[in-house]
Amino acid sequence: MTTRINPSILAADFANLEHELGRIASADLVHVDVMDNHFVPNLTFGPQMVGRLQEVSPIPLDVHLMISDVDRWAPGYAELGAFSVTFHAEATDEPVALARRLREIGARAGIALKPGTDVEPYLELLPEFDQVLVMTVEPGFGGQSFMAETMPKLERLSRVVRETDLDVWLQVDGGISLDTIGIAADAGADTFVAGSAVFGADVPAERIIALRDAAIA
Ligand code: DX5
Ligand code: ZN
Questions:
Q1: Is residue 62 in contact with ligand 1, taking CB distance under 6 Å?
Q2: Which of 190, 197, 135, 199 is nearest to 161 (CA)?
Q3: pLDDT tens, N- to C-terminus, the chain (217 residues)
Q4: Ligand 1 midpoint to CA 81 (Å)
Q5: From the CB of 32, is ligand 1 less than 6 Å away?
Q6: Which ipTM did the prediction report?
Q7: What is stated as this protein's family in its record (predicted)?
Q8: Is 106 within any annotated ligand binding site?
Q9: Residue 11 near ligand 1, beta carbon < 6 Å
Q10: Which listed residue, 1, 30, 140, 204, has the most CB atoms within 10 A of its CB?
């Protein structure tokens, strides 16, 4: 199984993002947290900023939309060239139509589940998606503690993906560190978002490798 480590630039120095991208050369994808101060109580950046990141980043972008009205905004992120675009289940009434639109444009489509969001209604939609993001903290802020109570949801997803032989990546986001990554890996995650654990390290590129090793161990 491939193990992917996607550093979240939410924990990077916003005044030096191009330089920060240079410190994570060992990453698989760059996780970009878009927040609108409506879906979550925090505000980050929008399409113009992400478009510029797309131009300068040597590593493909994994865009995590923590915004409302994704039917309106998500396709734009796919159009600017993001590798994957993930929206929250609650942010649209038409998740399948939106996923199809994202795939048509050429991005991988992802659906994100908050800690309190039940996975069962979304299991039958899995063929429409390329990845599921299981939030392991409440979305909105970096540096929070990993919520182990979300692991049964990941185990359930992992079982269904294996049984149905689907190619759907299972991503975890929030509180992933050298101490917690093994728990999420055991529960079936293959893609790990880490903000503070990567950018809080003296040498982020080495921390990424250590995280990958810890996930496999
Ligand atoms: C939280 C974001 C995460 C965040 C993770 O809402 O979706 O991507 O950057 O940060 P850490 O790894 O510090 O918990
Ligand atoms: Zn995120």
A1: no
A2: 190
A3: 799 999 999 999 999 999 999 999 999 999 999 999 999 999 999 999 999 999 999 999 999 999 999 999 999 999 999 999 999 999 999 999 999 999 999 999 999 999 999 999 999 999 999 999 999 999 999 999 999 999 999 999 999 999 999 999 999 999 999 999 999 999 999 999 999 999 999 999 999 999 999 999 8
A4: 22
A5: no
A6: 0.99
A7: Belongs to the ribulose-phosphate 3-epimerase family.
A8: no
A9: yes
A10: 30
